[in-house]
Amino acid sequence: MMNRIASALSLLGALTLGGGCMDFGGFDGPIDLSTEVDDWRNEVIYQVLVDRFDNGDPGNDQGVNGDDLARYQGGDWKGLENRLGYLDELGVTTVWISPVVKNVDTDANFDGYHGYWTQDFQATNPHFGDLVALRSLVDAAHQRDMKVVIDIVTNHVGQAFYYDMNLNGVPDITLQGSNDAGEFRHYTEYDPDFDPRGIQAFTSLGEAGPAPVVFQYDPATNHIPPEPAIFRDPAVYNRKGRTVNFDDPDQLLHGDFPGGLKDIDTTRCDVKETFVDVYAGWIEKTNADGFRIDTIKHVEGEFWRYFTQRVRTRLAAQGKTNFLMFGEIFDGNDALIGSFTQKELPDDAALQREQSCVPDGQPITGDQLDSAFYFSQHFQAVRGVFQDAGPTDQIRSLWEQRSTTWGTEAMADGTGLIPSEVPINFLDNHDVARFLFWLRERPEGERRALLHNALAFLMTAQGIPCIYYGTEQELEGGNDPANRERMWDTGFDTAGETFLWTQRLIAIRGAYPSLRRGGLVVAYSTPNTGDEPDAGILAFERAGGDAGGSYALVVFNTHQDHDSVTRNGDEAMTVLAPPGTELVDALTGERVVVSGDGTLEVTLPPIGRAIYIPAAEYKPEI
User: Fold this and answer.
1) How does DSSP assign 65-117, residue by residue?
2) Phi, psi angles (nearest 5°) of residue 196
3) Which end of the chain is more exposed for a tag (fewer CB within 10 A), N or C?
4) Residue 555 φ then ψ, to 5°
5) How far apart are CA 245 and CA 231, in angstroms?
6) What would the pLDDT profile of 322-345 be if each residue is shown by its tens digit?
7) How far apart are CA 378 and CA 470, in angstroms?
8) Rounded distance, CA 573 to CA 565, Å?
9) What span, in angstroms and rounded, lies between the C-alpha atoms of 402 and 419?
10) Which positions ≥6 away from 175 have C-beta within 8 Å?
11) Where are the alpha helices (DSSP H) in 409-491?
């Protein structure tokens, strides 16, 4: 653990400076780093959009518009620090916070409150606070044995420049074409459609070569040239315009992200080195514990091989080990998601080129991410089964793929965990509509029952659970920005049914090693979704691995209309627990006994679940 006395003295010295002074007296320099986590499988992550969580410092409320969710609302790091007790009471152990860097403030009538429109990679977002406030948040979390994960972006910067396509020196949004022919093309020089040659200029006589890049300068909206200085060089960007077809590899990797987010050429050695310096620097300044990394699939694999390895090595040398890096691959393709967690090396020629970027000659190993968001599970299981009552066989099939589609070897200097065993599981997040949004036409009781079933799945499936802020308060917003509500409007109620349910599930997960560290075996699944007796049944066992002798059998009925049983004709569920083992449902206290032939017949009501624990392990107080 870090030296609390030294940290407190440093913080005290910084806070005694004048309020308007930006000199932190050395407090913005490197600090002693420490490893705060033993095993990431024991963690429960809670995602926070800082601007939407709580407003602890009205002094940084510039530009707030509480009537429009597309605008800043006023949340900040001080507000989050003030609410760590709420998260502690819920059972959260890790807080993932939105990007901390300075953003383009406003663009096209939307604000950069989310943090993904970087203008300065090395400055804090003044809407959230200064470095003192960010360090204070991290230190306060560590004092509660909570960890902090910082969201980062390497794919792009915010709307930093326009392409002067008509060479008139001003950014235009116009029509191009002939009235006689009746053919017009609407285009914007801020965000033109993809051109594989690079965005081209034109005159009345025709094309005029690559369009010049013109950086904007509007301090009122923080449209000013990016920092550090390397990002003010047009050559650092791919300059091919907006991606319109995400299935085209060239557009996927080299296109500007829709909305004018300018795509960075992440194959360049100087870009790779800069990003390692920038983001390792944020950990050296805050002692945070991990990265959630945005837009992974839009960046070349060679960048991840360089970045993850160099960051781990640099931080480990200073005492920050077990540093978690997980990524967002917004895609239902499980093989694509998993590919970023595998150790992969290119052919010799490509490896030699990549190796030339390593200043000290340390061999590139092929290491990549420790884990990734399990979007394939979100689409196929959370939505497909727990919302829409699809066949549970598709969950079995998805889980069986992980042994080949995801990495099966821990990354050097990483978490020490095999990626295929630690997917980041979630119900919803800031990029998809909330779970309850899709159920808004259902009766309240049914909506809550479905949410509670899905939460039980989240807390018992193999991997690390991630809760999106406000799920425990039954927030139900649709797609962005409706799913980015103000948390403080809920009053941070700790007596609601879903808060208490989530709290209890987290406690149960923490009480039994099998639910955190056990292996995974599917005991029963079914293609049936109709009137069949087993329709909607999913059962899986958590045992072995690092769980010691701990064992759990988790059974769900995802059918929404009738009782279902773990048997279909002569086919009965067979379990790993020895015949005669007495199991107790950790949720209800109900007891069952494994039959002499190793089978177990369990009947559950519609939208029901049971978490069976051996009687010798059972803790009735939870």
Assistant:
1) -TT-TTS-----HHHHHHTHHHHHHHT--EEEE---EEE--EETTEE-TTS-S
2) -60, -20
3) N
4) -125, 135
5) 26
6) 999 999 999 999 999 999 999 999
7) 18
8) 9
9) 9
10) 184, 185, 186, 187
11) 444-460
Q: Fill in the amino acid letter for 103.
A: N
Tokens for 366?
């092929």
- Kind of pairing, strands 567-568 and 571-572? antiparallel
**pLDDT score at 359:** 86
Neighbour-count burial for 512-521, b at 16+ CB within 10 Å, e otherwise: bbbbbbbebb
The answer to whether 610 and 585 have CB atoms below 8 angstroms apart is: yes
Q: Give me the phi and psi of 175, to 5 degrees please.
A: -110, 145
For tokens 């407090």, name the residue: 27
Question: Residue 293, CB half-sphere, CA atoms under 13 Å: how many?
Answer: 27
Residue ranges in the chain modelled with pLDDT below 70: 1-30, 175-185
Q: What is the dihedral of CA 136, 137, 141, 144, to 10 degrees?
A: 60
Q: How far, in Å, are 169, 206, 225, 237 from residue 209 at the CA level?
A: 15, 10, 24, 17
- Which tokens go with 120? 């300065």
The pLDDT score that the predictor gives to residue 78 is: 98
492: left (phi over 0), alpha (psi -120 to 50) or beta: left
| Closest C-alpha to 290, from 460, 93, 102 | 93
Residue type, 326: F
Half-sphere exposure (CA, 13 Å, Cβ side) for 411?
Answer: 37
What is the CA angle 331-390-609, rounded to 5? 105
Q: What's the chain's Rg over C-alpha atoms?
A: 26
Does a cis peptide bond (omega within 30 degrees of 0) precede residue 126? no
Nearest Cα to Cα of residue 262 among 231, 293, 291, 292:
231
Domains with residue ranges and CATH for the chain: 4-155+267-508 (3.20.20.80), 161-254 (no CATH), 517-614 (2.60.40.1180)
Express each pLDDT in 563-602 by its tens digit: 999 999 999 999 999 999 999 999 999 999 999 999 999 9
Q: Quick one: which of 444, 328, 331, 456 has its CA closest to 386?
A: 456
518: tokens are 């056990």
Q: How far apart are CA 376 and CA 397, in angstroms?
A: 11
pLDDT for the residue numbered 2: 39
Give the position of tokens 């070897």. Answer: 409
Phi first, then psi: what are they for 517, rounded to 5°? -125, 0
CB 6 within 8 Å of CB 34: no
What's the pLDDT at 176? 63
Read off the tokens for 175: 């029509």
Residue 297 and residue 252 in contact, taking contact as beta carbons nearer than 8 Å: yes
Among 388, 399, 392, 465, residue whose Cα is nearest residue 426: 465
* Structure-token pair, residue 440: 């808004």
CA 221 to CA 105: how far, in whole Å? 5
Contact 515, 509 (CB under 8 A): yes
Report the C-alpha gap between 594 and 523 in whole angstroms. 13
Cα-to-chain-centroid distance, residue 351: 29
Is the four-CA dihedral 428, 429, 433, 439 of positive or negative sign?
Answer: positive
In terms of C-beta density within 10 A (0-12 exposed, 13-18 middle, 19 or more buried), how is residue 566 classed?
Answer: buried
Per the CB < 8 A criterion, the answer to whether 31 and 287 are in contact is: yes
